[in-house]
Design a protein that fits this description.
Layout (H helix, E strand, L loop, with lengths): L25 H5 L32 H15 L2 H15 L16 H6 L1 H19 L4 H14 L15 H12 L5 H22 L9
Helix pairs in contact: 2-5, 3-5, 3-7, 5-6, 6-8, 7-8
Bound molecules: protoporphyrin IX containing FE (HEM).
Protoporphyrin IX containing FE binds next to α5, α6 and α8.
């Protein structure tokens, strides 16, 4: 028995009003000899494949890039101490004047002292945990942005802190991630981490400066 659609559904029947996306499309009946893979249009079950959800323009990563970083970040999350300490040692190496802002760390004048300090490790892990929370919430854009802005805002209470200091974390972050990931830090991953840390730092800066929120629409 052949099935005809639309035209044969009598008025008032239970079929009437069923959305066209739940009915097999007309071509399914008209071209029975075409192999499924060559048929145009929706999947054979009759329902069009779900369109990918529109990407939120506030996150500058594609679906694939978000997937890649969440996978790659797992290796960093297993090495938070090592990566965080390496990041801070580099930050202080390149910006010696920052040490004075850290009440608990300002006595750590040499690289060796910094590498061995439990206090530095503790602070580094706390900063890495913030980055972890941001990277793990890239799918929940509002939550991710609110969180990063709140991190930025909390830096307002630090005497002498300026918003441009945040950007000084960019290179140390990338260098520390590279060191931890080693040969897993491919060119593709480097580009994804660069985009991600740029987005994170810009959002933290916006929170520090209390910039108006950008809507998703
Ligand atoms: C990715 C960028 C950064 C993140 C995610 C971050 C995160 C944090 C977190 C989680 C804390 C702990 C206390 C709190 O939350 O209020 C903190 C404190 C602090 N941060 Fe940052 N931070 C960043 C960049 C920087 C930079 C570049 C500096 C450079 C000077 C800095 C200076 C400080 C200072 C001085 C404190 C206070 C430390 C204390 O308690 O003695 N932060 N930051």
């Amino acid at each position: 028995m052949t099935h005809q659609f639309r035209a044969e559904i009598p008025k008032g029947s239970p079929e009437e009003g069923v959305s066209s996306s739940t009915r097999p499309p007309p071509w399914a009946a008209r071209s029975p000899r075409l192999p499924r893979t060559e048929r145009p249009g929706p999947e054979p079950c009759g329902a069009a494949p779900a369109a990918p959800p529109p990407q939120d323009p506030r996150i500058p990563l594609t679906v694939r890039q978000k997937f890649s970083i969440s996978k790659s970040w797992k290796a960093i999350a297993r090495a938070m101490d090592q990566t965080g300490v390496a990041m801070f040692v580099k930050l202080f190496e390149e910006n010696k004047e920052f040490l004075a802002l850290f009440e608990k760390l300002k006595h750590l004048e040499t690289r060796e002292a910094q590498e061995e300090s439990e206090e530095l490790k503790e602070h580094a892990v706390s900063v890495m945990n913030s980055l972890d929370e941001a990277i793990n919430s890239l799918e929940n854009v509002d939550q991710c942005i609110d969180f990063l802005r709140s991190v930025g805002k909390r830096h307002r209470k630090i005497n002498g802190f300026k918003s441009e200091y945040f950007w000084k974390m960019e290179a140390p972050f990338l260098a520390a991630v590279k060191e931890t990931l080693d040969d897993r830090y491919t060119e593709n991953m480097e580009s994804i981490y660069k985009t991600t840390i740029h987005f994170i730092l810009q959002t933290v800066v916006d929170g520090f400066e209390d910039k108006p929120l950008q809507n998703s629409a």
